[in-house]
Model the fold of this input.
Amino acid sequence: MNLTDRVVVITGGAGGIGSALARRFAAEGAAAVVLADLDAEATAAVAQTVGPVARAVAVDAADEGQVRDLVADTERRYGRIDLFCANAGVATGVGIEAPDADWDRAWRVNVLAHVYAARAVLPGMLARGGGHLMHTCSAAGVLTAVGDAPYTATKHAAVGLAEWLAITYRDQGLRVSALCPQGVDTPMLADGLATGHLAARVIAASGPVLTPDQVADAVVAGLAEERFLILPHPEVAGYAVRRAEDPDGWQAGLRKLVRRLRATPPPP
Done:
């Protein structure tokens, strides 16, 4: 996808990867960039930095009615949506002992929000013969977020959903991408490191931590090539191959890393 003159919607647009995508898409010549997030004030501030093509909307991506209204309003204003980035996400930093409420929130934000986005934009995209969905799924969706069971399970589900959409609708003109970065310098990772969460420490120890702008660069390249898996950390592809070829060895390596991290207290 060439982003020039495209109409784009980004959920989770108040910061991190979402705001970096907005800035980069505007620089690429997008006709409109609609930023949607629960945090109305922060989203409006991001839209101001992006420029006149940006519009901020307060939206809960895990509420189907609000997502449906977001899509309908954007199509009324701009005539179409060319690219919908389902980018909102939440982590828990805990294992299966996470309360049911945390499991439910992870499911709703990390999976159902993608379902709601697809339901809302598919009719218009298919009627026009094309469009692009990009789901932010995380490297956890093809590997594992050690230390965060709800995040791992829901991100795997998100990749599976994206693949299902790609297979089902590609011949009708729909393109689908799953964005799967590893460590990114966002508040989510910073908060996890500050509290010593194992999941965040494993991420930080597993490879370079990219800036959101570097992720946005990878996204633009991936969209241009219409890639399904967009991997800002290229090493994730190698990890996935090793995991598939030798799952027992892969798990043994992660257990070794976890033992080392647990023996080393996190910095104060």
Observations:
- The chain has ten helices and seven strands.
- Strands lie at 7-11, 32-37, 54-58, 83-86, 131-136, 174-179, 229-230.
- The two ends are 45 Å apart (CA to CA).
